[in-house]
Protein: Acid-soluble spore protein H
Organism: Anoxybacillus ayderensis
Amino acid sequence: MDMHRVKQIVSSPDDIRVCYHGQSVWIDGYDETNRTATVHMRGREHERHIVPVEELTEE
């Protein structure tokens, strides 16, 4: 995924399904400089991870 799409998803009111290595995640935020996103697995809000934007896919 590219950073432009990540920004669209974060600002969208819609429930857009995103995956990280096959796991469904929510994007909580992003860091444009480092090209990373902060995500958490659906149903596991307390487990946040910083991942490369390029490793996110849209379902």
User: Anything to note?
Assistant: DSSP finds one helix and five strands in the chain. The domain at 3-58 is CATH 2.30.30 (SH3 type barrels.). The chain has a mean pLDDT of 95.
